[in-house]
Design brief:
This is Amidohydrolase family protein. With about 450 residues, the protein is α/β, with parallel strands linked by helices. Helices cover about 30% and strands about 15% of the residues. It contains 15 helices and 16 strands. The strands form six sheets. It has a four-stranded parallel sheet. Helix 6 packs parallel to helix 7.
């Protein structure tokens, strides 16, 4: 069986930087009953034991990167069945269910139903340098039935209590992958994500009990649609929106996200004072022959470390284009958060921006790095060195995210406390709580 993989960095070799090992965690100890939305049946919900490692903080952290595993009908519940063959439907092939997107079988995720699914954070040590020399394929074969909190907001709130979290930003898993597969038909892209967003607000809400903040997915494949969808999402209480790090494909070809033709969308975002999150996903990038192209879930076969070196290209291109195209000059209240895209690109990008500014004197009215720092927040990979990111961005622009419950996530969100324990109290609170709270406040 090919293991389930749910984010672009899961196809990469481990970062060879070892960190302190984590203590073992207790097994699930408590059980509640949760009603399954799809079947109406009651089923037991295992509640994790409380994580009291944050008790001395005096506050509960706000996790800026949590995920749900989409319900089977997430893309079809509100989709006109007559459009299934053009947009999205399911197919059973050799006993396994696969999404069919735009009439093509999507194999980017081998287990798109997520039942069973690998455990949260099963690759955590692997991404910290693989000190045990584990075989990632073997780790991923340790499956369990899907947990209620992956698809049920009541169960997720109970899990957040156990994890010691005040609130979370909640993002798609499959939803970050599907635009690329359908980009040849921009209208179909908007139809698919309109249906998806209606499912999202129905199952999760955009501000559930002011603790779970699920972000609707928006695309600039059609700027008129994006404006209408944004207005709808704001009326439903959305505090943030999410898109992938890619120049959208429109009916007339690709257009840079910061192009003036998109200004009416960005003006609405800035006026509403909601944060646009650019989250890792399938950006459609090519390795130009240096490695196999396409999003993949397969850890088996010959390693391709070149893909690790290319991992942060999409977010570097996306964010730098916003600065180069003067988006923040035209919309000075705009806030962008990069989530689960890494941070190693920052130093080199800042050097290149300053060199370019010297070569193109007059293009920017100020240091472009200062523009970048004013408008952009960075959620580094949890295995990145947070001190490096703070030095580059400033303590006010770094946000904590665990990526829970993905396989490359922290097994429990507060595992991150060990990585920020050395920070002074004010800086630590900014990273764990204050910065994302500011971004989440209209």
């Amino acid at each position: 069986m090919v293991p389930t993989v749910t984010s672009p960095r899961q196809v990469l070799e481990p970062v060879r930087r070892c960190h302190r090992r984590r203590p073992p965690r207790d097994e699930v100890a408590v059980s509640e009953t949760i009603t399954d939305r799809e079947t109406g049946a009651s089923r037991p919900h295992a509640v994790e034991p409380s994580d009291d490692r944050g008790a001395d903080l005096g506050y509960r952290p706000f996790d800026a990167d949590n995920h749900y595993y989409e319900a089977i009908d997430a893309f079809t519940r509100h989709l006109d069945p007559r459009l299934g063959s053009r947009v999205f439907q399911w197919a059973t092939i050799n006993g396994r269910q696969y999404p069919v997107i735009g009439g093509q079988v999507f194999r980017g995720v081998s287990n798109a139903t997520f039942d069973p699914v690998s455990k949260p954070g099963v690759l955590a040590d692997y991404f910290r340098g693989n000190p045990n020399d584990d075989d990632p394929v073997a780790l991923l074969r340790d499956h369990e039935p899907i947990r209620a909190e992956y698809r049920n907001s009541d169960a997720r709130l109970a899990t957040m209590d156990a994890h010691g979290l005040a609130a979370v930003w909640m993002f798609p898993t499959l939803g970050m992958l599907y635009e690329e597969a359908l980009k040849h038909d921009p209208e179909a892209v908007t139809i698919m994500f309109r249906a998806f967003n209606r499912w999202l607000v129905e199952d999760w809400g955009f501000a559930r009990e002011n603790r779970i903040y699920a972000a609707p997915y928006l695309t600039l494949a059609d700027v008129d649609w994006a404006c209408e969808e944004l207005d709808w999402a704001l009326a439903q209480g959305a505090r943030s929106i999410v898109m992938r790090a890619a120049a959208p494909t429109t009916a007339s070809g690709q257009v840079a996200p910061g192009h003036p033709s998109n200004d009416r969308f960005w003006a609405r975002v800035a006026e509403a004072h909601v944060t646009c999150v650019v989250h890792a996903g399938d950006a459609g990038y090519t390795s130009h022959g240096y490695a196999n192209d396409g999003f993949t879930t397969d850890f088996a076969g010959v390693p391709q470390p070149i893909r690790m070196l290319q991992l942060e290209r999409p977010i570097e291109d996306f964010l730098s284009s916003l600065v180069c195209d003067h988006l923040f000059v035209r919309h000075p209240n705009l806030r962008i958060a990069s989530v689960e895209n890494g941070s190693k690109f920052l130093g080199g990008l800042f050097d290149k921006l300053r060199i370019t500014a010297r070569k193109m004197e007059g293009w920017w009215a100020e240091d472009p790095v200062e523009t970048f720092r004013r408008h952009i927040w960075i959620n580094p990979f949890w295995e990145d060195d947070v001190d490096d990111v703070i030095e580059l961005m400033g303590a006010d622009r770094v946000i904590f995210g665990s990526d829970w419950p993905h396989i490359e996530a922290l097994p429990r969100p507060l595992d991150y406390l060990a990585d920020v324990a050395h920070l002074d109290e004010v800086t630590r609170r900014k990273v764990l709580l204050d910065n994302v709270t500011e971004l989440n406040t209209p």
